[in-house]
Amino acid sequence: MERENRREKAVAAVAAFYRGFDPKEYLKYNYTPPRADFSRSDSIVPWKLNCLHKAFNEDSIKGDILVDVGSGPTLYQVMSGCEHFNRVILSDFLEVNRNELNKWIKDGESNFDWTPYLQHVCKLEGRSSSEWQVKAARLRSVVTDVFPVNVHDPNPFPPRSLPASGADCLVSSFCLESVSPDISSFTDALCNLSSLLRNGGHLLLIGALGESFYMAAPDVRIPVVPLDEAQVCSSLSASGFDLLQLSVYRLTPDMLVGVDDVKGVFFAKARKP
Ligand SMILES: C[S@@+](CC[C@H](N)C(=O)[O-])C[C@H]1O[C@@H](n2cnc3c(N)ncnc32)[C@H](O)[C@@H]1O
């Protein structure tokens, strides 16, 4: 009981930091050059897009429902997957982020220009970058919902958001380690995610390595669980996933732009048995 109370307090303390999250600043810090320089293969965003592209295209991950957990204000993480699923569900804890996503999906407006991202993913797929509008239309047509989510809840989504059998694939990027107070809470959150996935479904998990904080606005410093590769593997295993692939990207010094202390990025492909 005592332990449960402590855990609840620690989770609530992390949630309190999120009151200051500014989608526009977050996008500027993480999704503009040098971190999103499409002329460089050693830039973070092209590396992530390439991992996702390979998982969906070369490994043939496909199905009916793709769910992205903790989408934030970003769309890059479903730009490959949207071609392989009939339905894509986005989600975030904060209304301000859900509004940002809905602005792009429903009104075609956004604080952020996703065009270079769409062009880059078209090129990865062997299409002309000029087809980016076709991809944008595809993404808008398959995103059916932007749900509230809380990964610390044993039922992270509102009731009846998903079919009882679960989603065919889950994506989650930079969410669990940046909303959990410690490693055991990170592992529990992974267990909660597993409940959203059908047996045999895939989890594509992207996250930060060795990070202790990130800035979510000029004065908002959010604590992060500093993970290493071994902890990612053991948390996946403890939450019942079979790890199929773990790739690691190490940041070059010029990617450290003063908005966090991240050392690397992992991409894990796992399967729920
Ligand atoms: C570091 S951002 C990651 C955003 C995006 N997925 C990306 O790749 O950049 C972490 C996100 O987790 C969301 N979040 C905060 N608390 C959460 C919770 N308890 N459950 C799920 N998501 C949460 C935040 O609103 C934020 O959008």
UniProtKB/TrEMBL annotation:
Stored SUPFAM superfamilies: S-adenosyl-L-methionine-dependent methyltransferases
Annotated GO biological process: methylation
Keyword terms: Methyltransferase, S-adenosyl-L-methionine, Transferase
InterPro entries for this protein: NNMT_TEMT_trans, SAM-dep_methyltransferase, SAM-dependent_MTases_sf
Cellular component, GO annotation: cytosol
Entry keyword Methyltransferase: yes
PROSITE patterns: SAM_MT_NNMT_PNMT_TEMT
Gene3D superfamilies: Vaccinia Virus protein VP39 (3.40.50.150)
Tagged with keyword S-adenosyl-L-methionine: yes
GO molecular-function terms, A-Z: phenylethanolamine N-methyltransferase activity
Record-stated family: Belongs to the class I-like SAM-binding methyltransferase superfamily. NNMT/PNMT/TEMT family.
UniProt protein name: Phenylethanolamine N-methyltransferase
Source taxonomy: Eukaryota, Metazoa, Chordata, Craniata, Vertebrata
